[in-house]
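Task 17 of the worksheet. Students: predict the tertiary structure of the chain below and write it out as structure tokens. Keep your answer in the requested format; marks are given for formatting as well as content.
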Amino acid sequence: MLESAYAQLGSAATVKPDPDQTVVRAHPPDEFSLQLARLPILQVGSGESAGSTADLTLTTELGAGGMGVVYSATQHSLARDVAVKCVRAPEVSQSALHALLREARLMGSLEHPGVIPVHALALDPQGQPLLVMKRIEGTSWQGLLEAEQHPLWASIAAPNASLLERNLAILMQVANTLSFAHSRGIVHRDIKPANILIGSFGEVYLADWGIAAKLTEVAHGTTERVGTPSFMAPEMVVGGAVDERTDVYLLGATLHFVLTRSARHTGDSLRDVVMAAARSSQAMYDDSVPELLGQLANQATAWDPRERPASAREFRDRLADYLKHRSSIALAERARLRLSGALEAPVLQRRKLLLEARLGFEEALREWPLNLAAKRGLSETLGMEVEFEVEQRSLASAQAVLTELQDPPAELIAKVAALAATLAAEAEEREAAKLQVRELDPSVARRNRTLFVAVVAGLATLVVFLMRSSRRNEVPHAEPHTILLPLLLALALAPVALILRKDLWRSAVNRRMLLIVGVVLASATVLRGLAYLAKTDINQMLMFELLSMGTAAAVLAITLHRAFLWVALCSTVCALLAQQLPDWLEVFYVMPLVCLALVNGLLRNAAQASAEVSRPRS
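Model answer:
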């Protein structure tokens, strides 16, 4: 594992077609070459051939690149193991020399726990430069990511931390190291898991500073194409200005690798990978990736540097926020699962899942009020609750939930308003139907109506028997006072109708009966007037009155209740009998009145029976 990690350190100043490998352009020698003469000379040997005067004894090769090689060595003066990096081949020594001196000076200027300490920069007896560094006991982060059961995981982060939390802890330390480097005006330009070493006690080192550069050298743009294509930022491909946000991009690409175990840019060929890096399209993450981390990865790898986090420190703080509030985030994620399940659930189950999702998002926000995912989830849940209550036609519940939305969509407001209008219209229809039923309900004010009918029947009977003497005198035709009798009857009924007016006008049944009574009295008055003028026989006149009463009862049967057909039939039969048996005319005249009272009683009893049937049984 360590050999593969140090192999990256030996890859500086070489060109490789693999998109996962660092691409470096060779540079001509500059003023650094002039300082070779000032470097001290170290006595170096290897294996058994090392002399007694050699301070460094090279033992095993840890890794090698196109122009550099890293060895494990023993430093006898301090009795310790070190790592020694040197040029690989004499024919590329000028390019390798430049890269090695540059890397050594940059690393030497960064004294930070996250940078591998440089012990010395010297020449071997043959005049070739040597970079002596701390020997790291451990493995690369790439190796850890490929071996989730590696024992080194136990030394990273808290004992109960998840694998993702341990990876984020590593990335945060890398961001800390970069933040320090940026404060010294240096950008790394090749951040990836393979260039991050994990020590045996959980130490995190950002290695391979071979293509690092000073901001003053790259701030105005460069035509160099250096870096690892599968991780590179767009400006590294097109030759734009490079600054701290370029390293932020690489942090985002590394986070993408941690979340998906795949490189940020992929393709079937190196050209495809480079083109993908130039486009830097937003990644689509599935539900296994925490939403906030997916957002951070996409924001950090935005094509426009201005849309990325402004610094490595801000990137680190965003990771710290995630770890600090992971309990709230976990609550929101579980609530999101319930919300997703509610979409396809049956009605009863949907209400339960929506309630659980809502409570979950609210609990997440209580723990962390700035949890954007929980805020958005709560808003979606409330919106779904409103739609659910609208579907269930529960206006009060829909309006109550709608008031909890800070900025409810216009469409949702329209749905609730439409439901309110629909229910109001239905309520009006029901009220109209109730009113219609009430209008035709014979049980409304039935006692006062019965009283009024009894008074009508009694007075009419009295009037008929008062006419008996007139009917039997020597002048059998209608007399003037007979015309006045219906009017007197109406005047006698007027106080009764006035007293009972509130009840008698409460329904169509009562109003129509009053109207019919008035029509019958009016028609009786007219008939008697005509009978008087025509000198009609009183018996004939009363028979016509019976027929008019039957006609009025038939009207009631058609407009109110068919039970009044009995009154109409009784009146017609009595009129015919009165013609045949004139001596019993008074009796025949009273019988329809009695029938009317009986029918009214039957209507009352029918109403009571209906009430008994509809009454709930205990």
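Marker's comment: Confidence is low (pLDDT under 50) at residues 1-17, 26-30, 605-618. The first strand starts at residue 44 and ends at 46.
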